[in-house]
Amino acid sequence: MPQKKIVLKNKKKNKIVLAYSGGLDTSVILKWLQVNYRAEVISYTADIGQKMNKIKIIKNAKRLGVKNIIIEDLKNIFVKEYVFPMIRGHALYEGVYLLGTSIARPLIAKRQIAIAKKFKASAVSHGSTGKGNDQIRFELGYHYFGPKIKVIAPWRIWKLKSRTDLIKYAKKNNIPIPKDKKGAPPFSVDDNLYHTSTEGKILEDPKKQAPEYIFQRSVSPERAPNKPSYVTIGFKKGDPISVNNKKLSPAKLLQKLNVIAGNNGVGRVDLVENRFIGIKSRGVYETPGGTLLMIAHRAMESVTLDKRTMHQKDEIMPKYAELIYNGFWFSKSRIKLQKKVDLKRNQVNGNIKLKLYKGNVIILSRQSNSKAYSINKVSFEENKSFKKSKVEKFISGAARKLRV
Q1: Same domain for 159 and 205?
Q2: Which residue has the higher pLDDT, 24 or 227?
Q3: I need a surface site. Which of 207, 217, 333, 383 has the fewest CB within 10 A?
Q4: Class of residue 229 by CB neighbours under 10 A (exposed 0-12, middle 13-18, buried 19+)
């Protein structure tokens, strides 16, 4: 059964803070909220590096009568406080998804509640569908930071059942309808500085190949340059701080890696995933810079961390990634795992050099002052740094475990 309509009991004119992208869905929602709740809608747009036209967002919101139009630059916060911790955890959902959409929602929800409190709004709203994961991610954030603020999820309430209904509503209310590259109503696209996801339409049939024109930040490996590109990523205390020996802010560092990797066909994933609510869905993801960071960080840890620490991180990663995917970024469970992830991050310092060629990422070198890796111990040349006489005893102990 659909959710019942939320009742707002504010004696003054109701205020609702809407997570607003300026696109079709949220523009329709904005109008619908005004009509159905007789509310003042405050539009909130978090700039986390997505493709956005601020002038168009403001123009569309003003056309719909919005007085308070808020656009907030969160790019550095997003990368430093959300993406980088996730990179340190090597978070991959179901083995391949780098969680680009999942990690963005908690930050937007947190700021949306802060705006709601500032303007004394009685409710917040989002444009997530009733079948997707994002509704959960948004609302868990809302409940964490503003448990008394009501949540309006139009896709679970209104009578509009499809994108066709959405377009009819838009036409009726003179709301602009964007077109995709083929002139049809658009795919469902989410993007930020970390990734771009594309869903819907032809992609809903897993037998169909993703059309090349949907990709926005990466060339196909076939069209990538015939010569390799080289990039060196510097790390300090587990976080990337430089590209090709030039120190950059978190946002600019990821931007630069996105361009380098995307131009070389790196970072594409076509995934049929298991949503939190139990539905399987297909998404095409592009995470070029994030792919480089994930590979480089793991390579950096290989020469700076001990075996036990690395293996413990590998053991907790699936659970850590699933918590993020399901929307539990602010949960005690995720924070507890993050502490384990970061236990020895101060040791993860140095440089990783990568070679990029037609979708491939090849590790060329690892440079660090760490003593975790010993050339003397591993060398095939005879030396006194490793006592081979202890090996037989080690094997005997291991053999006894065969019977356990």
Answers
A1: no
A2: 227
A3: 207
A4: middle
Q: Which residue, 39, 4, 49, 3, is CA-closest to 18?
A: 39
Q: Which pLDDT value is given to residue 379? A: 61
User: Are 289 and 308 members of one domain?
Assistant: yes
Exposure b/e, 1-40, CB count within 10 A at least 16 = b = eeeeebebeeeeebbbbbbbbbbbbbbbbbbbbbeebebb
Mean pLDDT for all residues in the chain: 92
Is 106 contained in some domain? yes
CATH number at residue 31: 3.40.50.620
- 258: helix, coil or strand? helix
**What predicted TM-score, i.e. pTM, was given to this entire model?**
0.91
Domain count, the chain: 2
**How many Å from the N-terminal Cα to the C-terminal Cα in the chain?**
52
Q: At a CB cut-off of 8 Å and minimum separation 6, what does 324 contact? A: 86, 91, 93, 99, 102, 103, 334
Domain assignment of residue 144, yes or no: yes
pLDDT in tens, 316-365: 999 999 999 999 999 999 999 999 999 999 999 999 999 999 999 999 99
Do 269 and 205 lie in one domain? The reply is yes
What pLDDT sits at residue 129? 86
Residue 145 and residue 265 share a domain: no
Confidence at residue 73, expressed as pLDDT on a 0 to 100 scale: 98
Q: Which two tokens stand for residue 239?
A: 């976080």
Among candidate residues 236, 155, 139, the one with its CA nearest the CA of residue 188? 155
Q: What is the CATH number of the domain that holds 268?
A: 3.90.1260.10
By residue count, the chain amounts to 404
Q: Are residues 201 and 103 in the same domain?
A: no
For residue 269, give Cα distances in angstroms to 92, 97, 215, 261. 12, 7, 11, 14
CA distances from residue 109 to 45, 112, 216 in whole angstroms, order as listed: 11, 5, 26
Does residue 11 register a pLDDT over 70?
no
Catalytic site positions: 25, 105, 134, 188
Determine the structural domain holding residue 38 and report its residue range: 15-87+99-187
DSSP code of residue 41:
E
Query: Is residue 309 scored above 90 in pLDDT?
Result: yes
Same domain for 140 and 232, yes or no, is no
How far apart are alpha carbons 349 and 235 in whole angstroms? 5
Task: Quickly state the pLDDT bin for 47 (edges 50, 70, 90).
Answer: very high
Identify residue 309 by its one-letter amino acid code.
T
